[in-house]
Amino acid sequence: MRAAHGLWAALALLLLPAGGRALRDGECEVCVTFLGRFYQSLKDNDVEFTPASIEKELLKSCKEAKGKENRLCYYVGATSDAATKIINEVSKPMSHHIPVEKICEKLKKKDSQICELKYDKQIDLSTADLRKLRVRELRRILDDWGEACKGCAEKSDFIRRIHELMPKYAPRAAGARADL
Question: More exposed terminus of the chain, fewer Cβ within 10 Å: N or C?
Fold first, then answer.
């Protein structure tokens, strides 16, 4: 009888949603990647691992962040327009060399939006047919390059601008394309 109760208790624990479960593969993709790169840059630049110095460096890194990484900085409170400040939830654990996966796990408990961030799918410019892409995707290619298409009114204008800039930003793709 006691064994049956133990079995039911074990089964109940397995079926309960795990609040403290470790991150799955691909979960918190932006958080883990950005903070991993940030941690490595701290080590490479011999930055002192104190919460204050880590916060200062994180604010610097977030000023240069774009796209989804900038959104992560906003959620953490490392941008000037951020509504909340949970930057200490990053700096304090990182000062103790806690793995970035664990830091992101804790951040997920504070704000679930942090782990919902995913990088946009990269477009392979060497094989992609630019005529079949949406204007939004063409615009994103230019944005990723830090370029704009002033005066572009039609899709063909964006495609022409990408063809002009491809040798500068994606030389391998430009060499592999037959339509250039």
Answer: N
Token reading at 161: 């601008």
State how far the alpha carbon of 74 is from the alpha carbons of 31, 61, 81, 158, 164, in Å: 12, 12, 7, 30, 34
Quote the mean pLDDT of the chain.
Answer: 84
Q: DSSP state, 25?
A: T
Collect the ranges in the chain with pLDDT lower than 50: 1, 4, 6-20, 180
**What is the identity of the amino acid at 108?**
K
Which is it for the CA torsion 166, 168, 169, 172, positive or negative?
positive
Q: Distance between CA 32 and CA 61 in Å, rounded?
A: 15
Measuring CA to CA, how many Å separate 140 from each of 67, 75, 134?
Answer: 10, 22, 10
